[in-house]
Structure to design on (328 residues):
């Protein structure tokens, strides 16, 4: 690999440019000098999260509490009374599922957008609405289409399969496949951000600049295909039993919108209040942007693959995997 002069900060080279990777959305043309360190540290953090992550705490203590508070009654087990109530239930439980590990990591793609050059706080926040709109559109399209499939297919889908062949139900196998694939995609995008592999969306994003954010939104929407979150399963069954495709599309779309609502608000606040400062910090060394984005993707990717395709086997006593006592 041939290095070309990188921007120098305080007399030190902070980033490198790669010969084989043209600048694109995921790769800005400059990578941090210590790319191996970024990869290793991110992978270790992703692994560590699988060791300490407690699904019971996130799903029940946090998720159920938020849903019960917003709905004003116990969400779990309470029948959903009609389509409008179902859509509200979908939005609320989507918000309640914000703090599951799947949702948060995707927003690493927004890192380079937080520091725009807009002169005022309001204009920076307004500029941030465009990528958020593309992200939401991608999530809604994928999740709504899946909602239609659920309404048409009904309870014959594998997510209703509770048989324990080899200790794994059909629902669990589907979650392993879906989140495993998403984890591999995120890991690849992390490597692409560092310029190690090619950006798979480089060519299409030249013609359609919004394509990367639509794609990231699509990943968020795809979370519903494998999601085992108990409150979502309740919505899933209600949609499947209704056989109402409009209800299915709306409910699943609002579930995805709920998933990104809190993080979108946080993104806009960061953009408005810290955007200019972040932009100057990132501009001082272009490699920082790549390192931040890559770390987010790799941590999320490694976590998803190890948690859903390795640790879950240990939970079913099929293999050994280190799990913290409170997370077992």
């Amino acid at each position: 690999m041939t290095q070309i002069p990188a921007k120098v900060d305080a007399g030190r080279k902070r980033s490198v440019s790669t010969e084989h990777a043209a600048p694109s959305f995921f790769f800005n043309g400059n990578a941090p000098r210590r790319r191996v360190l970024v990869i290793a540290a991110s992978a270790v953090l992703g692994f560590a999260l699988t060791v300490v992550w407690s699904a019971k705490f996130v799903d029940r203590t946090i998720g159920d509490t938020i849903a019960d508070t917003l709905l004003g009654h116990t969400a779990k087990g309470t029948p959903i009374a009609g389509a409008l109530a179902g859509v509200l239930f979908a939005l609320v439980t989507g918000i309640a599922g914000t703090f599951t590990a799947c949702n948060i990591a995707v927003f690493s793609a927004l890192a380079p957008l937080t520091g725009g050059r807009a002169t005022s706080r309001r204009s920076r926040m307004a500029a941030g609405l465009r990528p958020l709109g593309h992200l939401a559109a991608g999530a809604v399209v994928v999740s709504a289409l899946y909602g239609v499939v659920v309404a048409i297919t009904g309870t014959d889908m594998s997510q209703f399969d509770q048989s324990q062949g080899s200790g794994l139900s059909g629902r669990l196998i589907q979650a392993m496949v879906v989140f495993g694939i998403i984890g591999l995609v995120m890991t690849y995008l992390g490597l692409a951000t560092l310029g190690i592999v090619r950006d798979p969306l480089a060519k299409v994003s030249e013609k359609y600049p919004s394509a990367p954010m639509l794609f990231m939104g699509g990943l968020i929407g795809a979370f519903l295909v494998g999601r085992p979150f108990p409150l979502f399963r309740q919505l899933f069954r209600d949609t499947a039993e209704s056989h109402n495709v409009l209800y299915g599309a709306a409910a699943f779309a609002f579930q995805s919108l709920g998933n990104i609502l809190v993080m979108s608000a946080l993104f806009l606040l960061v953009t408005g209040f810290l955007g200019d400062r972040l932009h100057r910090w990132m501009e001082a060394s272009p490699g920082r942007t790549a390192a931040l984005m890559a770390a987010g993707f790799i941590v999320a990717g490694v976590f998803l693959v190890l948690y859903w395709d390795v640790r879950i086997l240990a939970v079913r006593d099929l293999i050994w995997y280190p799990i913290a006592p409170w997370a077992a």
About this structure: Residues 125 and 269 are 8 Å apart (CA to CA). The longest strand covers residues 8-9. Residues 1-14 have pLDDT under 50 and may be disordered. The two ends are 45 Å apart (CA to CA).
